[in-house]
Amino acid sequence: MSKNSSIFKRSMPIIAAGLSAKFNIRVNVSGSEAYTNGAVINVPDYDLDTQEDKHVMQGYLVHEVGHNRYNSFDIDPNTKPNTPIAHTLWNCIEDIRIEMALMQEFAGTKIWLNMLAQRLYDTRKIRGFTNTDHPSTIFVFYALYYGRFKYLSQKAYGLVLPECEKAFLQTFNQHILNRMKGVLSQVDELNSSQDSVDMTLALLKMLNDEKEKSESNQQDDSGADQGNGPSDAQDDSDEGLADRIAITLDANASDIADLGDVKSVLDDFTTNAACNVTTALSETNYRSTPEAGKKLNASVKMTANGLIGRMMGMMQTKRRVVCRDNDHGRLNTRVLHRSVRGDRNIFRSEGKRKTIDTCVVLMLDISGSMNNNVSGISKTRFEIARDTVIALTLALERCKIKTIVTVYPYKNLYTCGLLKKENENAERVLAERMVNITPDGQTPIAMAYYHSVCELIKSKCKRKIIFSITDGEPTIGNATPTREYIQEAKKEMVESYGIGIGKDIEHHSMTHIYGKNYVVIDDLKNLKSDLFKMIEKVID
């Protein structure tokens, strides 16, 4: 199947962010295990090859969102199912309840949930069963399959329902089947997880009633055999029914097959090949040092002010409002005399002022090589890069351009650090966090770029730009993937530029990754002139 959307539209961080915003529930992408604890949903960074993969993953995530949103964890402890069959049956009914609620409140989720069901069928996570399966499996999963097909219109379950119904009738009988369907017909009236528990208990009580009825019939037949002649109170097909029901009610957890578990769909996904399973964008916890931060801000203030002056001047030119005479608007007394000759263009109207609806990510390399000195001056590459980021961020924000700052590698080779969020004020938080950074490790730029773009795409700003500040040479195997990511990011209207630190920078790598879209900075004094051509593109 062709890949018909970019890797970023199919990326787990973007999907998670979208669902978090839509449903107001926290969805994390990290680690190697998928789980939910009632407050947070966590999922690894899976590699989604196709648009269909994306929808299947969305189906799984909204299913988990449903458990959180509709309070699957809120039940009376005194009625909590305490046997394996009761617990499994409750989970099945609860799954139907929360998915029905999702489809009613968010109509678009029906497509994702149906695609999830179809993927489960295609990978045989949903399968038919026969009368050789354990009676508990037949009872529980017929309820699940029938409920999903009948009340959620999930056709994948309907494909196996006929053979499952045949096994049900061979194991139980038509009367029990009809009573089960009667209880399940109330599923659209379930408003809480406690209601699902009550329905579970009703089904098990029904089954127990049928067991007692069957035992009574067997006793009547036994009495008839001893002296009163044959009885037709029990159908031949019900022979041993009470025993099969008893086996069902007393089933151990190992007796009940694991069919249709939505989480099993994750078994067929692999983690993102470009990013290790532990990859994440993590908020940094560098110790803030306010006094040292103020000194650092002050040291770059002159450079920042120089950038601000030039940027403001350019913005005034770019955003100049053109005034024209018109037949409506504000009266222009200077041309009032035109009215004598019938000219109605005696009003002044102003054109719309251009707005700079832009967000910029500054992605800072803090690898070990950034500790090296820049040729000809006494500062390290990191010090130049750090000051460049602070000055540029201050200037951009002064010009009403939103900024995000990320650093890499953060703590380990597979984590990118979120140093400054879009809604934070750079002058207040950035410098005081940066003073305690110590460069170390390799340069996993592909991982950092991937997560920086994912963070940037979450922004509501119309225009999105990434500045990558680095000393040039990435970790082996990272240059080409980064170049490919840049091409993919263009599909999402993300522009990418490189800022190389030091005269002795590896130009071959910079050219390979950024083409002509990079500049080299070797001294903060030259920042205004060296960077300005690139900043012109941001303001344009």
Automatic annotation (TrEMBL):
TM regions (residue ranges): none
Domain of life: Bacteria
Gene3D superfamilies registered for this protein in UniProt: von Willebrand factor, type A domain (3.40.50.410)
GO BP term, example: cobalamin biosynthetic process
Annotated segments matching region Disordered: 210-239
Pfam family, one: VWA
Domain VWFA: 359-538
Cited PANTHER family: NORD PROTEIN
Protein name (Swiss-Prot/TrEMBL): VWFA domain-containing protein
Lineage per the UniProt record: Bacteria, Pseudomonadati, Pseudomonadota, Gammaproteobacteria, Vibrionales
